[in-house]
């Protein structure tokens, strides 16, 4: 212990310079927009010590006074920069601006690639917009699918499986607020407006201690602060939706800024004729889909460096269907879900060595499904029946974090987090026109959680750096659970400028689990808070990686291996409709499951220059074990994918024209396939009803998935602020599996008698070759 | 089994699934360029289960035992229409007595020559060249419970054209703590419409309503209760002010849960859309087979108005 402290103190440089230390502090921002750049790396050339900017682009470190310091600043998707500063002259805040990587980026000496960090992914939003997408709809969550370790569950889905974990094991934060369902349109779109998002950082290992409550990943999305220079915006028209974004300063001081973003789909408009035809009686079916979302943020920068921001999000999906194809019967259904979030955040540098971040945030997620049936009876009277199912979550969180920039390359952080939850696993109401309400059950679970953390990020030498953290958490619903200790550690050793090795270990706990019978977000999904019956799930993970930079090619290659173990997992009981058994969740949910996931990830990327892109490959296993399932043996988890290969690239032909493409290959996902059929002859019928008998869980696999997408971007001459995007999804029209079913194929007749049918597996595919066109202009 | 076979239920959940599925698919189709949701047959490498028995059999007091024997069919491949098991050797075993052979009286239908009697425990075994031996556990066939009842406010008018009936049925304490089932019919001389209502102090395992001209069936079952208040559904009768009920016919008894469990699972079956549908687990209480082997010992009461 003494040795460790000695190393820390020695390396902070306190001893020789105590009382003579100057501090360099400030912000790293994007040139032009003044948006903060989080995770930028500042390297002090003299000592090779490094420090990273925090979530608002802030940095602070000590240096010897009177000596010119040369700083090298690198960040993903930005051209690197070098500056020289004289610490004595800096009383205020230094603002360093980085220009986005363009063809005109000025070359400087040395690598242009920021140092890699184990398990951490920074997605360059500007590059991401060029990746071809379904119907040209830019989606930052979908783009994660192209990165090793991240995997989308089904075609078009947005439920991310990260390193063998289930979608609910991902902590998705929007300006610090948890988002419980990031899907629009059953997952075809994520809820994140691409123009509003400033940065996306994702962690699949080596989690900083400030994050908790989920087992597998953290996806931290931050919205823009708004331009301080001028009011500007952009709008885009696509085949599926249109979006608009506007930002700028309020008043002349440039201290207060705003952003506004909105998006809406016109699917509902396209199907309006069908709706009117149904109302007029000329159609017996209609489906209407409406979705919209909006973001707003206002921020004020105080003269003392403090920043106050208010961030709001609201989004809603509505699917309405109706059918009257059977005489005397009419049925309609409405499915709605939406997220609403609000956060108030205050950030303040305290002196030259401290930074305080305080967040008060609330989130609400709710979905509901209402079904209505009308039956015309024999006496021409009308009988109506209605059913309503719903579930949801509300939370209110207060977080505080204090960072201490103790010395060159050393940052200590500590914080606390209090949350209050109201979880509604389910609400069920049945009623009809004669009896009134037949059944009304609403299960609500109030809960509270508290967590605290400490973390040290230190450069022990110019080669060796550590990140050590400890998070303590407790949860209370029907009983107090905890305190639980969640240690985290990461060790990085730079062998030389090109090679580095890193390793990490972490323990994570999750107090809110989603039990799902499918991967596409239909209403049988139920959130279950931890309780005496449902203990919090745990993951213990280790990972290690080797990183090799290729400065000559502005490229980097890495290999990461990981292994995770899960405890206290939940799963659905076969044959159970969770929402209808909401009163008896204990009997409907399998508890005490364990899991294991391990794999190897290869990643090669080139993020600078005309050619950009990456190649990712994952070899992975993910298995689970539940008492009473498959005889208590291990079985492949629903998100088990053996091979996952992705290749993404873009090429700037010139300033006006660029081309991009991607190729994806994934092993088939496990499914539980019936092993036999049971015939049952209803009285009065000759033909039997066939009922499937299911055998072992995950006893078969879907066919493999692969596709290629191509996209082009064109900026007309003289109108560079306008962009045409066109391309195609699934260019070679691969029929990928969405779901399978067994269907009889009639074999014909012999002497007028039908030959018994052959039952075959039929694969249904969606999204074949799908061209797109979108138009975006800046104003 | 006859009781449960009459279940024709307007199952809201199934409608909901159907609608949701239709809407969902329609939305996806619209998204993917109309008609692009395409299908093709594929070869899937999945190991199929060897053929097993399916037994549908219920012991009833003083009645000839009639069982139906089928075999499971492969999920993939040519499904033969000869799914019943003929030429099987089927035996009814009784503790402390000789086994009785059942004769095949129709395709896959086997019967005893004599009625089974209460107070005994019975098991069934069956053999066939193509199938492993089928065997069931012993089930005790109890006598039909003595049922006392009170008929209170047999019919009352709750609002215009709406009526309500209330029966209180009390079972003896000696009743085995197994499944109690009720099958209530109302005999009427005109169409009346019933609505199911869950009124038992324990949750019904199954309930349905059916309007069939002169009769209404209310099939219900519940567990763990001695006194049941049968709050017969409210009746709507738009044709006149007089409720045309002539009698209540109630069959009430005890049954093993296997039959009910089987049919409960059977009616939950939602198709084969793997990746979307929820797999259903059928209860399996039979060695080398599916289906049910149960007892039902009931008594019919006819209560004239």
Specify the biggest β-sheet of chain B: 13 strands, mixed
* Uncertain residue ranges of chain B: 1-25, 31-36, 174-179, 193-233, 269-278
| Unreliable residue runs of chain A | 1-19, 518-523
Beta-strand residue percentage of chain B: over 45%
Coarse morphology of chain B: globular
Q: For the CA atoms, what is the radius of gyration of chain B?
A: 23 Å
Q: What is the CA–CA distance across the termini of chain A?
A: 59 Å
Estimated structural class of chain A: mainly beta
Number of DSSP E strands of chain A:
49
Helix content of chain B: 10-25%
What would you say about this model in short?
By secondary structure, chain A is mostly beta strands. Chain A is built from seven helices and 49 strands.
Describe this structure in words.
- The complex is a heterodimer of chains A (779) and B (305).
- With 779 residues, chain A is mainly beta.
- Mean pLDDT of chain A is 84; it is low at 1-19 and 518-523.
- The longest helix of chain A is centred in the first third of the chain and has 11 residues, at 2-12.
- Chain A is 5% helix and 58% strand.
- In chain A, strand 22 and strand 23 (354-376) form a beta hairpin.
- Chain A has a 22-stranded antiparallel beta barrel. Chain A has a five-stranded mixed beta sheet with strand order 8-15-16-11-12. A four-stranded antiparallel beta sheet of chain A has the order 3-2-5-6, with no helix packed on it.
- The termini of chain A are far apart.
- By secondary structure, chain B is mainly beta.
- Chain B is 11% helix and 47% strand.
- Chain B has helices at 2-5, 12-31, 257-266; strands spanning 38-42, 53-59, 64-71, 77-78, 89-94, 100-106, 109-115, 121-128, 131-135, 139-140, 148-159, 162-170, 179-188, 193-194, 206-212, 215-223, 227-236, 245-255, 289-304.
- In chain B, the strands form two sheets. In chain B, strands 2, 3, 5, 6, 7, 8, 9, 10, 13, 15, 16, 18 and 19 form a 13-stranded mixed beta sheet that branches.
- In chain B, strand 2 and strand 3 form a beta hairpin.
- The longest helix of chain B is centred in the N-terminal third of the chain and has 20 residues, at 12-31.
- The two termini of chain B are 28 Å apart.
- Classes of the chains: A mainly beta (779), B mainly beta (305).
- At the A-B interface, strand 20, strand 21, strand 22, strand 23 and strand 24 of A face helix 2, strand 1, strand 4 and strand 17 of B.
């Amino acid at each position: 212990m003494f040795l460790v402290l000695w190393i820390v103190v020695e390396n902070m440089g306190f001893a020789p310079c105590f009382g003579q230390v100057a501090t360099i502090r400030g912000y790293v921002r994007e040139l032009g927009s003044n948006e903060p750049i989080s995770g930028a790396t500042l390297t002090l050339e003299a000592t090779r010590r490094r420090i990273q900017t925090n979530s608002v682009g802030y940095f602070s470190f000590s240096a010897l006074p009177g000596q010119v310091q040369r700083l090298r600043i690198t960040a993903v998707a930005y051209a690197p920069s070098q500056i020289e500063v004289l610490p004595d002259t800096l009383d205020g805040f230094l603002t360093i601006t980085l220009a986005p990587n363009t063809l005109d980026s000025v070359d400087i000496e040395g690598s242009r690639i920021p140092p890699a960090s184990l398990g951490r992914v920074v997605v360059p939003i500007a590059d991401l917009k060029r990746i071809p997408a379904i119907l040209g709809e830019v989606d930052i969550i979908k783009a994660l699918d192209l990165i090793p370790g991240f995997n989308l569950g089904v075609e078009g889905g947005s439920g991310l499986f990260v390193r063998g974990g289930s979608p609910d094991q991902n902590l998705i934060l929007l300006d610090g607020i948890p988002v419980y369902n990031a899907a629009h349109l059953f997952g075809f779109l994520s809820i994140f407006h691409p123009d509003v998002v400033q940065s996306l950082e994702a962690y699949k290992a080596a989690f900083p201690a400030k994050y908790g409550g989920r087992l597998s990943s953290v996806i931290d999305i931050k919205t823009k602060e708004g331009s301080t220079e001028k009011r500007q915006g952009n709008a885009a028209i696509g085949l599926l939706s249109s979006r608009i974004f506007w930002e700028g300063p309020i008043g002349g001081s440039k201290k207060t800024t705003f952003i506004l973003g909105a998006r809406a789909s016109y699917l509902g408009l396209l199907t309006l004729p069908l709706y009117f035809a149904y109302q007029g009686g000329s159609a017996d079916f209609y489906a209407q889909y409406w979705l919209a979302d909006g973001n707003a943020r206002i921020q004020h920068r105080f003269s003392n460096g403090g920043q106050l921001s208010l961030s709001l999000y609201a989004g809603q999906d509505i699917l309405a269907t109706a059918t009257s194809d059977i005489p005397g019967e009419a049925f309609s259904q409405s499915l709605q879900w939406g997220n609403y979030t609000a956060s108030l955040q205050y950030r303040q540098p305290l002196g030259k060595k401290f930074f305080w971040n305080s967040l008060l945030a609330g989130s609400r997620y709710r979905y509901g499904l209402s079904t209505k049936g009308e039956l015309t009876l024999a006496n021409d009277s009308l009988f109506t029946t209605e059913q309503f199912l719903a579930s949801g979550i509300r939370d209110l969180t207060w977080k505080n974090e204090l960072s201490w920039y103790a010395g060159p390359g050393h940052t200590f952080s500590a914080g606390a987090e209090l949350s209050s939850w109201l979880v509604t696993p389910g609400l069920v109401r049945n009623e009809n026109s004669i009896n009134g309400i037949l059944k009304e059950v609403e299960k609500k679970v109030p809960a509270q959680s508290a967590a605290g953390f400490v973390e040290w990020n230190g450069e022990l030498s110019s080669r060796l750096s550590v990140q050590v953290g400890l998070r303590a958490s407790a949860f209370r619903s029907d009983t107090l659970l905890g305190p639980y200790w969640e240690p985290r550690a990461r060790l990085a050793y730079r062998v030389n400028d090109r090679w580095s090795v890193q390793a990490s270990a972490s323990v994570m706990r999750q107090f809110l689990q989603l039990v799902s019978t499918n991967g596409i977000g239909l209403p049988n999904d139920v959130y279950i808070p931890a309780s005496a019956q449902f203990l919090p799930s745990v993951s213990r993970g280790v990972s290690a990686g080797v990183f090799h930079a290729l400065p000559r090619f502005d490229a980097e290659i890495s290999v990461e291996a990981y292994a995770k173990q899960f405890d206290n997992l939940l799963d659905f009981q076969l044959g159970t409709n969770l929402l209808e058994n909401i009163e008896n969740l204990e009997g409907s949910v399998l508890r005490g499951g364990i899991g294991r996931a391990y794999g190897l990830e290869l990643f090669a990327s080139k993020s600078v220059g005309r050619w950009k892109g990456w190649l990712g490959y994952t070899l992975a296993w993910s298995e689970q074990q539940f008492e009473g399932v498959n005889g208590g043996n291990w079985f492949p988890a629903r998100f088990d994918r053996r091979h996952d290969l992705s290749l993404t690239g873009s090429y700037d032909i010139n300033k006006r024209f660029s081309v991009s493409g991607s190729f994806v290959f994934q092993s088939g996902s496990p499914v539980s396939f019936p092993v036999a059929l049971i015939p049952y002859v209803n009285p009065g019928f000759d033909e039997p009803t066939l009922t499937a008998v299911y055998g072992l869980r995950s006893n078969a696999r879907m066919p493999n998935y692969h596709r290629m997408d191509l996209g082009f971007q064109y900026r007309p001459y003289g109108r560079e602020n306008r962009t045409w995007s066109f391309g195609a999804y699934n260019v070679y029209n691969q029929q990928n599996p969405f779901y399978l079913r067994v269907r009889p194929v009639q074999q014909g007749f012999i002497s007028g008698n039908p030959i018994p049918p052959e039952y075959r597996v039929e694969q249904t595919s969606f999204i074949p070759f799908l061209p797109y066109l979108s138009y975006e202009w800046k104003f | 089994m006859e009781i449960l076979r009459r279940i024709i239920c307007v199952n809201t959940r199934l409608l909901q699934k159907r609608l949701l599925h239709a809407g969902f698919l329609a939305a996806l189709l619209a998204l993917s360029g109309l008609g692009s949701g395409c299908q093709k047959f594929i070869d899937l490498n999945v190991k199929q289960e060897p053929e097993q028995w399916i037994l549908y059999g219920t012991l009833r007091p003083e009645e000839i035992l009639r069982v139906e024997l089928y075999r499971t069919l492969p999920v993939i491949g040519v499904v033969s229409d000869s799914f019943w098991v003929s030429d099987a050797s089927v035996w009814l075993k009784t503790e402390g007595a000789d086994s009785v052979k059942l004769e095949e009286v129709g395709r896959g239908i086997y019967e005893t020559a004599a009625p089974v009697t209460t107070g005994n425990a019975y098991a069934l075994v069956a053999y066939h060249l193509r199938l492993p031996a089928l065997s069931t556990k012993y089930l005790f066939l109890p006598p039909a419970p003595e049922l006392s009842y009170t008929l209170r406010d047999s019919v009352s008018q709750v609002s215009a054209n709406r009526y309500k009936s209330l029966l209180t049925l009390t079972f003896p304490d000696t009743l085995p703590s197994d499944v109690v089932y009720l099958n209530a019919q109302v005999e009427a001389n005109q169409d009346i419409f019933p609505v199911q209502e869950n009124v038992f102090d324990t949750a019904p395992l199954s309930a349905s309503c059916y309007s069939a001209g002169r009769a209404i069936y209310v099939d219900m079952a519940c567990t763990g209760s001695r006194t049941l208040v049968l709050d017969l559904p409210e009746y709507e009768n738009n044709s006149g002010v007089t409720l045309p009920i002539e009698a209540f016919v109630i069959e009430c008894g005890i049954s093993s849960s296997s039959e009910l469990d089987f049919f409960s699972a059977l009616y939950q079956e939602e198709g084969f859309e793997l990746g979307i549908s929820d797999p259903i687990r059928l209860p399996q209480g039979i060695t080398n087979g599916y289906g049910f082997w149960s007892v039902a010992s009931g008594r019919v009461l006819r209560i004239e108005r």
